[in-house]
Amino acid sequence: MTILLTPRTRIRHASEADAAALWRFRMENRAHLAPWEPLREERYYTLGHSAQTIADWREAIRLDRGYAFLVLGHDEREVIGTFNLANLVRGVFQACHLGYAVAQRWQGQGLMREALESGLAWAFGPLGLHRVMANYMPRNERSGRLLERLGFEREGYAKRYLCIGGEWEDHVLTALIHPRG
Ligand SMILES: CC(C)(COP(=O)(O)OP(=O)(O)OC[C@H]1O[C@@H](n2cnc3c(N)ncnc32)[C@H](O)[C@@H]1OP(=O)(O)O)[C@@H](O)C(=O)NCCC(=O)NCCS
Questions:
Q1: How many A from CA of 148 to the centre of ligand 1?
Q2: Distance 38 CA to ligand 1 centre (A)
Q3: Ligand 1 centroid – CA 28 distance (Å)
Q4: Are 158 and 170 within 8 A, CB to CB?
Q5: Does 142 contact ligand 1 (Cβ within 6 A)?
Q6: Residue 58 lies in a domain
Q7: Which of 112, 117, 142 gets mutated to test ligand 1 (max ligand atoms within 8 A of its CB)?
Q8: For position 13, which CATH number holds?
Q9: What is the pLDDT, as a whole number, of residue 133?
Q10: Can you name the residues that pair with 71 across neighbouring β-strands?
Q11: Is the minimum distance from the CB of 67 to ligand 1 under 6 angstroms?
Q12: Residue 88: inside a domain, yes or no?
C-alpha cells in the first residue's frame, strides 16, 4: 500500500474502514464544495455512497485507471482532503487528470500544496506518468493559484467544458509535464 508522508500529512489510498471518515468529510464540507463539483443527489451524502466510492476507487487502482488518495493528519483522526489522479491512460500518453479538495477548516494553510507536491512526485516517479492535467473554472482563483505554485502551465481555455453545479462551465486547462522530460 502506498503511503506518502509530508511534514503535516499522511497520504494513502482509502480502505473500507475509511467510509465513515469520508462520509463525515462530505457532510461537513457540503456547502464548501458544492460550487466546484457536479450536482450531487441526496444519496451522495449517505454512508453507503461513501463506501461505494471507496470500492470504486479500489477497483480503479486494480485496473490502473486512477489513483485516489485521502489526505489525513498524522494521527489519521480526520480526512483533511482528497485528491485523485483520474482517467489514467497509458501507452503513448502516460497521463491523467488531477482533482482535489480540502476541508473548509483546513483551507489556506498550504496543506493541499504540501500534499500535492508529494502526490505529484509519486505520479511522476513510481507511477510512471509523463503528464498530469488539471482544469479549473476562471473564478476559482484559489485553485488556479495552487496549480501555478505547483508549476502547472496554462495550455488552453475550454468553453462549457464540465457540468459543475448543474451548469456547463468554462475551464482553464493546465498541465504539468514530467520534470525530466
Ligand atoms: C482549491 C483548494 C484545494 C486549495 O487548497 P488549500 O489547501 O487552501 O491550498 P493552499 O493553501 O495549498 O494554496 C492555495 C493558494 O491560494 C492562495 N489563496 C488563499 N486564499 C485565497 C483566496 N481567497 N483567493 C485566492 N487565492 C487564495 C494561497 O495563498 C495559496 O497560494 P500561495 O501558495 O501563492 O500563497 C481548496 O480551496 C478547495 O478544496 N476548494 C474547493 C474545491 C476545489 O475548488 N477544488 C478544485 C477544483 S478545480
A1: 11
A2: 19
A3: 18
A4: yes
A5: yes
A6: yes
A7: 142
A8: 3.40.630.30
A9: 98
A10: 11, 81
A11: no
A12: yes
Question: Could you tell me if 8 and 114 are in contact, meaning their C-beta atoms sit under 8 angstroms apart?
Answer: yes
CB 85 within 8 A of CB 132: yes
Predicted TM-score of the model (pTM): 0.95
Side-chain half-sphere CA neighbours of 135 within 13 A: 19
Is 56 part of a structural domain of the chain? yes
Query: In angstroms, rounded to a whole number, what is the distance separating the alpha carbons of residues 75 and 121?
Result: 23
Residue 174 is assigned to a structural domain of this protein: no
Which residue segment(s) compose the domain that 76 sits in? 3-129
Please report, to the nearest 10 degrees, the dihedral formed by the alpha carbons of residues 70, 73, 77, 82 taken in order. -20
Q: What is the DSSP code string of the chain?
A: --EEE-SS-EEE---GGGHHHHHHHHHHTHHHHGGGS----GGGGSHHHHHHHHHHHHHHHHTTS-EEEEEE-TT--SEEEEEEEEEEE-TTT-EEEEEEEE-GGGTTSSHHHHHHHHHHHHHHTTT--SEEEEEE-TT-HHHHHHHHHTT-EEEEEEEEEEEETTEEEEEEEEEEE-TT-
Model pLDDT for residues 119-174, shown as the tens digit of each residue: 999 999 999 999 999 999 999 999 999 999 999 999 999 999 999 999 999 999 99
| CB-based contact 116:124 (threshold 8 Å) | no
- Looking at the structure of the chain, the number of domains it has is 1
Residue 83, classified by CB atoms within 10 Å of its CB into exposed (0-12), middle (13-18) or buried (19+), is buried
